[in-house]
Amino acid sequence: MPSWEIEDKFAGIICGVDEAGRGPWVGPVVAGAVVFLSRDINPELLNGINDSKKLSAKKRERLYDLLLQEEKVGHISCAVGEASAAEIDSLNILQATFLAMKRAVQNLKVSPTHTLIDGNRLPADFCCSCSCYISGDSKSYSIAAASIMAKVYRDNLLKKLALEYPEYGFEKNAGYGTKEHIEALKRYGITPQHRKSYRPIKEILEA
User: Fold this and answer.
1) From CA 64, how far away is CA 182, in angstroms rounded?
2) Options 2.60.120.200, 3.30.420.40, 3.30.420.10, 2.30.40.10; which CATH number does 7-164 get?
3) 141-163 per-position pLDDT tens digit
4) Fewer CB within 10 Å: N-end or C-end of the chain?
5) Which pTM value belongs to this model?
6) Which positions ≥6 away from 109 have C-beta within 8 Å?
């Protein structure tokens, strides 16, 4: 379960960052950034925060709403950043993810002293000092909260995209290569939101 242990290693304003959407074939990669300005926050939020992959969709959405409520009262600063499908195709998914992370931190209302990043790679030329933690979203409250921000925000984006392209089932598959998604690609082709550098989409284009 997450704790404050990693945050307590650093002085100043500490930010947690995590991403959602590296694997899907469609849509942007999204990063969340969260700074706890106070630890006197809603107990339901603190007790519920965890790696977003370990939470149900309903639980994630509830915690996302609580994060936004805590931001309104000044206990938290949170933001998201995106890198588009076109940017993913241009830069590659790793560099696009780093770009989304940088944008998320820059979108915060506060300027972090240090950023904690989930994973095992650090971006170059980041906007502040940073360190990375494997499975950080299971260890750090800040990173876990950022994972919830990124996941729920991206899922909501895909639900909106599903209204524009209802044949692909984006509201259910979040852009991953499910059977329904593959069948829709065969029947209707790719959308402008598909990642053309990803092998399944690339193969369709080449065919």
Assistant:
1) 31
2) 3.30.420.10
3) 999 999 999 999 999 999 999 99
4) C
5) 0.95
6) 77, 79
